Amino acid sequence: MDMKEMATLETLDETIHPALNLGKRVGGYLYVHRSACDALDETAKAALSLAEQLAGKVDWNVAKLSLEGGSISLLDYALFFDSAFPELTRSYRIDLTDETVRVLDYSEGSNRPVLHRKELLLSPEHPRYAEYAQLTAALERAGLLQNSHAVGYHRQWQERLSTGGYCVIGHTLEVVDPDAVREQAEVQRHRTALRRYSFSRPMQALARHGYLDGRRVVFDYGCGRGDDLRLLELNGVPSSGWDPHFRPGAEKVMAPIVNLGFVINVIEQPEERVRVLADAFAHAQELLVVAVMLQGTSAAEHAAFGDGVLTSRGTFQKYL
Ligand SMILES: C[S@@+](CC[C@H](N)C(=O)[O-])C[C@H]1O[C@@H](n2cnc3c(N)ncnc32)[C@H](O)[C@@H]1O
User: Fold this and answer.
1) Fold of 190-317
2) Which ligand 1 atom sits nearest the alpha carbon of residue 192?
3) Which residues line ligand 1 (CB under 6 A)?
4) pTM of the prediction?
């Protein structure tokens, strides 16, 4: 062993102190994609270079470093960049103390370990980082990454996706079975109702056009928490409202003005949207005001659901 190698080996007992935003930590290990290994600290780089020497000429794309030092595994994941959940084909575990190499070959296996959250292995500057991170965020919102240790293998992972009613195309999470998703996620329509401290936009429009002068009764169809009703009362406008969650016992009444404010965009069933619209229209004697959300947070950040999206709060939104 020459002096250069001696110097490298002396550093091996040292623990590794990676930058906080580098790699994915699981247990006492740090996983880093080969393209991001330049950002490792000098101790880790020396250990990695020794591990490579000991392993010989092998294919690998992910380094798994023990944070305590002492061992490194060089992992070869198939189709790291193209597969949403790359599968492990081979692992070379190098014990840097006794300089032994143990090879685990999964290439012929039918149920290989899979990688989730792969963006964490890359530098945040990597051109595909955002694309991968978006998929991870969608999986998290759908609750699919809970107890991810239980879905560390291809078959279990695919089973979780399909029983949840999802599939992944490219790096996009798609709903294939809305009933399964609804059953598990249960769309929380009422959670769309915000606290209001001033009139909603449709009420403001009515006021602007002179309809809130107190001569016409307003019926608020899907009134949510009833803040518009409270403000109408404060302004001396006769009104009432109904909401299936907040005021299920209230009466649906005929009124000169009916407001259907931000209701149909939270309904995930297109046929129900039509029914609600028709029913609101049937209660309006003079004027029906319909308001919907035109856009919200980028739809790409949410899981596709029916003809809309499922948000992180378990609500449905049909953005136009
Ligand atoms: C975004 S909130 C809007 C509440 C209120 N109109 C406002 O502007 O503050 C949507 C409301 O629609 C209600 N909703 C859900 N399904 C409905 C239905 N089939 N008919 C009427 N209202 C419904 C929800 O309970 C929720 O309170």
Assistant:
1) Rossmann fold (3.40.50)
2) 1
3) 189-190, 192-193, 196, 200, 221-224, 243-246, 261-263, 266-267, 272, 276
4) 0.55
Ligand 1 centroid to 193 CA: how many Å? 7
Query: By C-alpha distance, which of 156, 119, 159, 113 is closest to 138?
Result: 119
Specify the residue with its C-alpha closest to ligand 1, atom 16. Answer: 267
User: Amino acid identity of 171?
Assistant: H
Going from N- to C-terminal start, the domains of the chain cover 3-178, 190-317
Report the nearest atom of ligand 1 relative to the CA of 261. 6
Q: Tell me the HSE value of 220 on the side-chain side, using a 13 A CA sphere.
A: 27
Q: Determine if residue 140 is left, alpha or beta; phi over 0 gives left, psi from -120 to 50 gives alpha, anything else beta.
A: alpha
- Segment holding 72, helix H or strand E: strand 71-78
State in Å: Cα 281 to ligand 1 middle. 15
Show pLDDT as tens, one digit a residue, over the chain (320 residues). 333 333 333 444 456 565 657 899 988 899 999 999 999 989 899 999 999 999 999 999 999 999 888 999 999 999 999 999 999 999 999 999 999 999 999 999 999 999 999 999 999 999 999 999 999 998 987 888 877 777 899 999 999 999 889 999 999 999 898 777 766 666 677 777 888 899 999 999 999 999 999 999 999 999 999 999 999 999 999 999 999 999 999 999 999 999 999 999 999 888 899 999 999 999 999 999 999 987 765 555 677 777 888 776 778 888 76
Q: Are 125 and 103 in contact (CB under 8 A)?
A: no
